[in-house]
Amino acid sequence: MPKVPLSPDLIKFIEGQPIYFVATAPLSTDGHVNCSPKGGTGTFKVISPLKVAYIDYVGSGVETVAHLKENGRIVVMFASFGSKPKIVRIHGKGYVREAGSLEFRDISQHFQGSLRGARCVVEISVEEVSTSCGYGVPLMQYMKDRETMSSWLASKGQDGLRNYVRKKNSLSIDHLRGLEGTEVAF
């Protein structure tokens, strides 16, 4: 059942989920479809019923960024692993706001807390919202956010992160353009 824009009850559901998944695909049928888990308290924000955004941290791949730069198509999925089953999908057009840009500075003001390790913020114009029952999703208990990323970022330092981004995030596995620069919020 398509729904646009995000309703208050769906926004409340989204804000209560500790994990979400983003999926993108290149235009080429020979390219690799990508699905990435995302999470961490405060990393996803509903800016308005028709605009959402999430912090994209330094990582070993750059598929989502490359696909968005090529065609902008994205879906974000939230699934309840608690006692009330539900799945929400946000389909939209995604825009990459790279660290160090004016767009990054503007959109990042919507996030509270540290942006340390952010290579960009993905801003999404909501085109369609769909829900499904989630009856087949297992019950699981959330424990806490991982602390591994903070330790890894600290061990790399600013220059180490820039070198890492240059090496790992300039091209996707399909050789699509990834990040333009090497700026990382630190």
UniProtKB/TrEMBL annotation:
Residues 12-133 form the Pyridoxamine 5'-phosphate oxidase N-terminal domain. SUPFAM superfamilies: FMN-binding split barrel. Coiled coil: none annotated. It holds the Pfam family PNPOx_N. InterPro entries: Pyridox_Oxase_N, Split_barrel_FMN-bd. PANTHER family: PYRIDOXAMINE PHOSPHATE OXIDASE FAMILY PROTEIN (AFU_ORTHOLOGUE AFUA_6G11440). This is Pyridoxamine 5'-phosphate oxidase. It comes from Ferrithrix thermotolerans DSM 19514.
